[in-house]
Write a structure and sequence with these properties.
about 200 residues; mainly alpha; 8 helices; about 75% helix; membrane
């Protein structure tokens, strides 16, 4: 019984770490950017949003191009012997390793420029948003535009990394929780349903 309790507490700590890690990184990143923001980058509306949205879409596309679809099927995600059933350190070294997400498969996929293909359209949207961020940097900062573009790149990378992190960490957490994921999901649903009904 003690061993079971220790394992449960350890799993809870791992889930807590997964939830808190992006929050901590975002908080530290924002403080760092504001500390070195000599051009007042964040005072220009839209630049950061364009960059992060472009990055989020790009991250999702990198997942699409580098992962097999069956890895996200219900049975695979919850399989105790499946690809997501790895220790927490291996989640970072295997699934969250930046070297895993080569842009080459994505570039090969969108090269024909088939605009009936969803991935191609999304890649165009991501590129357009990044282009708006570049245009805004040149328009508002002039000779200091390279500093703004550096901030754009950092925020874009954050967005792409966050998309990959959320999907992979979510699949890993569902595999770890297994049946309890359904129970927790139901309780969360009931909480918000009752809260909405109360109003």
């Amino acid at each position: 019984m003690i061993d079971g309790l220790i394992e449960m507490l350890w799993r809870t700590a791992e889930l807590g770490l997964l939830v808190m890690l992006p929050v901590i990184v975002l908080s530290l990143g924002e403080r760092l950017i504001h500390a070195v923001d000599v051009i007042r980058y964040h005072e220009v509306p839209g630049l950061a949003r364009f960059s992060v949205l472009s990055g989020l879409i790009a991250g999702a596309l990198l997942l699409y191009a580098n992962h097999e679809r069956e890895w996200y099927e219900f049975d695979t995600v919850f399989d105790p012997d499946g690809p997501w059933a790895v220790p927490l350190p291996q989640l970072f070294t295997l699934w969250l390793n930046p070297l895993r997400y080569s842009p080459q498969p994505l570039l090969h996929h969108i090269a024909p420029l088939d605009y009936t293909d969803t991935a191609t359209v999304l890649a165009g949207l991501s590129t357009g948003l990044a282009g708006l961020a570049v245009f805004g940097s040149v328009r508002y900062f002039g000779m200091k535009a390279p500093l703004a573009m550096l901030a754009n790149i950092v925020i874009w990378l954050w967005g792409a990394g966050l998309a990959i992190y959320m999907v992979c960490a979510g699949a890993w957490a569902l595999n770890m929780l297994n049946f309890w994921a359904v129970v927790i999901g139901f309780l969360v649903y009931r909480y918000y349903h009752l809260k909405a009904a109360a109003h």
